[in-house]
Amino acid sequence: MSYSVRDGILVNIKKNRPYKVLFDYVDGSCYINDDSHKGYDHLVELLSTLKNQIKNRHHTSVYENLEAIMFNFIANYYNI
């Protein structure tokens, strides 16, 4: 995951064995390649909401919120 003022929000969730991109979000557009869908619709909704709030916030605040969203998603849906 990353966030920059120039590129926006970028998120990739990948699987190592076999290598596969399960989810890809690039500043508003998303690609879901996981048959289970594990709550990706809700994740896209949260990321889109964060994207819409970027103009009014400092970049470190946006990144902290992005971290929280992703860590909560991974903990909830991948049982970590």
Protein traits:
80 residues, alpha+beta, four-stranded antiparallel sheet, 2 helices, 4 strands, 28% strand, globular
What is the element layout, followed by pairings?
Elements: E1 2-4, E2 8-15, E3 20-26, E4 29-32, H1 40-52, H2 59-77
Antiparallel strand pairs: 1-2, 2-3, 3-4
Helix pairs in contact: 1-2
Could you characterize the architecture of this molecule?
It is a single chain. With 80 residues, this protein is α+β, with helices and mostly antiparallel strands. Helix content is 40%, strand content 28%. A four-stranded antiparallel sheet has the order 1-2-3-4, with helices on one face. Strand 3 and strand 4 form a beta hairpin. Helix 1 packs antiparallel against helix 2. The radius of gyration is 13 Å and the shape is globular. The two termini are 18 Å apart.
